[in-house]
Write a structure and sequence with these properties.
By secondary structure, this protein is mainly alpha-helical. The protein is built from 7 helices and no strands.
Length: 120
C-alpha cells in the first residue's frame, strides 16, 4: 500500500520486501570481532541483533570465524599443569577456579593427551 502511494507522488519504490532491521557494516564487525576479540554473542548483544545474524554477516563479508579450541581459556595451560591442578583441587574445584565447566576441562585434558601421543 505504501509503495502505491509513493508511486502516486512520484517516488521510486523498489520491488520486493522493504528493508527492515540493522545491517552491520564490515568495518564495525572487523573492529569488534577481529581487533577487539569480542565473541559473536557479545557483538550481537552490543548491536541488539541475534547471534545467527552476526554469524551470517561474518560469513557474507568472508571473515573467518574463530574455532572453539582457539577461544578456549585452557589452551595456554600444559597438560602437566592441568593434571596438577586436578590432583590438588579435584576436577570440580579446579574447573570452578579456572571458570570453565568441568566437562570442558575433561575434554581439553583428553585432547592434550591425544596431542602428546601424536607428537611422541
Amino acid at each position: 500500500m505504501a509503495r502505491i502511494r509513493d508511486k502516486e507522488i512520484g517516488m521510486n519504490a523498489k520491488p520486493g520486501r522493504p528493508k527492515i532491521g540493522k545491517n552491520p557494516r564490515k568495518i564495525e564487525l572487523q573492529r569488534l570481532y577481529a581487533r577487539e576479540g569480542k565473541s559473536i554473542r557479545e557483538i550481537a548483544a552490543h548491536l541488539g541483533l541475534h547471534p545467527d545474524t552476526i554469524h551470517y554477516w561474518l560469513k557474507k563479508y568472508d571473515m573467518k570465524t574463530r574455532s572453539m579450541a582457539k577461544r578456549s581459556k585452557l589452551r595456554k595451560y600444559k597438560r602437566s599443569a592441568l593434571e596438577e591442578g586436578i590432583s590438588e583441587y579435584g576436577i570440580r574445584g579446579y574447573a570452578k577456579q579456572l571458570r570453565v565447566h568441568e566437562s570442558t576441562l575433561r575434554h581439553h585434558l583428553k585432547v592434550k593427551k591425544k596431542q602428546d601421543k601424536q607428537s611422541a
